[in-house]
Fold this protein.
Amino acid sequence: MLQAIGLTSARHRGLPPAVDDLTFEAGSGCVTALLGARGSGKTAALRLMLELDPGRGITYFRGRALHRVAQPAREVGVVLGDVPGHPVRTARGQLRMLCAAAGVPASRADELLDTVGLAGLGDQRIASLSPGMDRRLALASALLGDPHTLILDEPAEGLDAREADWLHGVLRSHATRGGTVLYTTSDAKEAARAAGQVAGRVVSIDGGRLVADQDVVEFARTRLRPRVAVRSPHAARLAAVVSREARAARRSVEVVTEASSNRLSVYGSSCAEIGDTAFRHGLPVHQLADEVGDTGPVVSDVAPGGPASRTTGSGVTAHSGAAATRTRPDGSGSDGAGPARAEGSPAPNAAAKDLPPPIRRRPARGPLRPVRYELRRLFGVRTTALIMAVALVASAGISVLLARDGRTPLPNVLAAWPSLLPLPPAAICAGLLGALSFGDEFRYPALAAGRGTVPRRLGLLLAKLVVSAGVALLLALLVVLASAASLRLVYGGDLIRIPPNVMSLGVSWSGLTVGCAWAGLLAAGIFRVTAAGVAAVLAVPVLMVPLVQRMPKAPTARSMAGLPGRLRELAWPHWPHETDRWLLAAVRVVAHPVGTALTLSLSVLICAYLFTSVRGRVRW
C-alpha cells in the first residue's frame, strides 16, 4: 500500500504551491489513477512522494518512508518521462547497466526485454526506438528490481490505442499479482479504462488539491455519463418530481443531489424533458445544460468552510454528494473538502502547529554494484573505443615523425610528446574519457530512471576513479607498444633501446595519464559538463606548469637522500628494500614541474568535489 499524507510543495517567489495538502492512498492489488489537467500538480506530487523535491508531507511505501528503504529499486519502480540514457546505447546495454545499479543479475535484462515485447530489439539503439518502444523500455527499467509499487507519470501519452491497451494490461497484471500501481493521466476516459477490470480507484486533483477520491464504478457514473446539470432554488422538490414522473413513465432516470442544496445532476433525461417538468409544476430553473464530464476539474469559488464543489471548464460537476463521500481506513467517512488520512497517521494541517514533516531533497543512491555499473557504462557505447583508437593512431604517427630527426629523446618519442603540444595525445584522450565518465552521466542520466539526478556517492566516485585509472593505464601501455611497433616497422629495431631509468619513466608516464583522467573526471563531476573536464586537463600544462616554474626557488636546494630509510624507521611494518626504488621514483615524479602541477590540480579538484557534494550543488 502507498499512503501519501499532507504533501505540500515548497513555495517559489510567493507563488502558490504546486501541491497543497494532498492526501490519498493507493492500495495493493489496485490500479490507482491520479487524474488532473495539465498543470494541476500531478508530476509535482510524484516528485514529492519520491523525495526529489523539497516540501512537506510524507509518503509511506508499505509502512516505510522511501529514505528508510534499503534498496529502493526493489520497492518502487519509477517512470518519469522518457527512458534516460545515451542515445547510441542499445536497449539491452541500457538494461544491463541498470541491473548493476539495482543489484540484480544481468540475465534479468533479457527476461524483461521478452516481457515488454522487445526481445527482437535488444540490439536496437535507444535513439532509433519509436515512442511506443521507448515506453516499453522505460517500463522494463522500472521493473528491473521486481518492485512492489509502480509509479508512472503519463505512461500512455503519445501512444496509439493498441499500445495503450497493452500498457494498461501490464499495469492490471502487476496489480493482480498484489502490487500497487499509481499513474498520472489527464484523460478521464483513460483513467477509467486502465483500472476498469481491477478494483481500481481514481484520485482527481486540481490546483494541487484533492477534488475527489472514487472507485472506478462511481467515477464512471459521475464523470463519464452524459447528464443534465440543473440549478434551482427548489432543487429537492424538482428532484422528487422528476423521479416520480420517470417511475410513472417507466424510464431509467437517475437524479443525484449535489453537495450544495440547489444543484442536481440528472442521468438518462434531456433538457427539454426536465424543463417541461419544471414548467408544469411551477418550479424556477436557473441553469439547464447537457454535459459530459470527461474533462479535467477546475476549482469553483466556494466560501471558506463551504461544500467542496468542483466544476470542469464547461461547468461540469466533477463529483456529486455521493462521490464526495470517501471512507477512511478506520471505517469513518469524510467529505471531499477534508481528505481522508491514513490509519494511525496524524491528520495533516489539523492545526497550524501540526504541520506535516518536511520533505528533504535526497539524491539517488549510488549503484549497488558500482564497478560493474561503471564498466558497462564505459564500454556500452562506441565512444570509448573510438577515442582510444584515435589516441593510438595519432601517437604512432607523431612518434614516427619525432624519430625522423633523431634529436628527440626516446622516452618522448615513445610517448609521442613533442614540445609543441601541451600534453601527449594519450594524456588528452585519457582526460577526455575521464570527463565523459561524469559528463555523460549528467547529460544522459542513466540513474535517473530510479530517482532523479546522478548521485554523488563515495562508492560511485571510487568506482569511476578505479575504472578510469585502469583505462588510462591500458591506454598508456597500448600507446607505448603502438609507437614501438611503428618505429620498428619504419626505422628498424636498432632505434629502440631500453633506458636504464625505465622504472621511473614508467611511473611518470602512468602517473601523467592517470592524473589527467582523474582531473577530467573530477572537474566534470563538479561542473556537470564534459567541457569543464577537458578544460581542467588542458589547464595543467597551460596554467599550472608555468605557475610552478615561476615559483621562487631557494638559492641552495636541500637533498632528499635517505628519505626511504627515515620513512622505514617511522613505519611500524618493514617493507622490502625494493620498495625504496619505487618510492624514490614517485617522489621524483611529483617533484617534476608537470607532476607538481598535476598534484596541485588534483588536490584542488578533490576539495572542490567534496565541498560541492556536501553543499548539494555548485556555489561559486
In short: Residues 458-491 form the longest helix (34 residues).
